[in-house]
What we know:
Layout: E1 3-11, H1 18-28, E2 33-43, E3 48-53, H2 56-69, E4 71-77, H3 83-92, E5 101-103, H4 118-128, E6 134-135, H5 139-146, H6 153-165, E7 170-173, E8 184-188, E9 191-195, E10 204-206, H7 208-221, H8 226-242, E11 245-248, E12 251-253
Parallel strand pairs: 1-2, 1-4, 4-5, 5-6, 6-7, 10-12
Antiparallel strand pairs: 2-3, 7-8, 8-9, 11-12
The protein binds pyridoxal-5'-phosphate.
Amino acid sequence: MRRRVLVVAGLDPSGGAGFTADLAVLSHAGLDGVVAPTAITVQTAERVRRVVRIDPEVVSETIGALGASHEIAAVKIGMLATAQVVEAVARSLPALRGAPVVLDPVLASGTGVELLEPAGVEALRARLLPLANVVTPNVAEAERLSGIAVREPRDLETAARALRVLGARAVLVKGGHLSGAPDDLWVDDGGATVLAGERVGTGRIHGAGCALATWIAAGLAQGLEPLEAARRAKREVAAAIARSQTVEGEVRELRW
Ligand code: PLP
């Protein structure tokens, strides 16, 4: 059986985010991916216009079938759209024989369109955080999941620790949406570590969060320690941001 990374995520037809972007990351990392699609979106790089949900039974059957026919070396979870899909994924993960899970808790698009319904947020907190080896919220997601307001860098640690109490083994809170340097904060049972970043260019980057989580899953599949996987992921995404190209208005897409 070939070792693959399982991507559980939505389709962005523009290719900048979602599972097609995740497969591009895996290929760049030298890995093969398989996909359990959770939603189809209608969107351009600038705006999500519509979300079409996938039947949760289809999601769990797909994960079951892929787990039976491939050795799943790691799992990346992205957009889930509904509470029922969150439940279906939580029920299906134990069949993957302990593959490490990276959870990107996608709640809304960069332009504020809902990508997980409100009931799904509670389900994600209760059912998926406890199964996550690494969870990668941005500031807004960390606030919503932890209930802690994040206004300045030191709040990142309070929110990250709260998400660990909810069951995630390691938390990477992405500080890029705070003003100043885009430093991220990693917290695991060894303590807190700042992953320092430098701001490159201006404008909104489409799909950076998807790519970062997928790079971490790739690192875990390749046997890196979680913190090392996160450091490499941040380096790779920073390099892709430096090479990014404008696709629409002020929106830029990563280049590998
Ligand atoms: N569409 C899909 C399918 C996604 O998974 C995501 C983010 O995870 C987005 C859109 C939003 O991407 P961004 O906020 O980077 O524009």
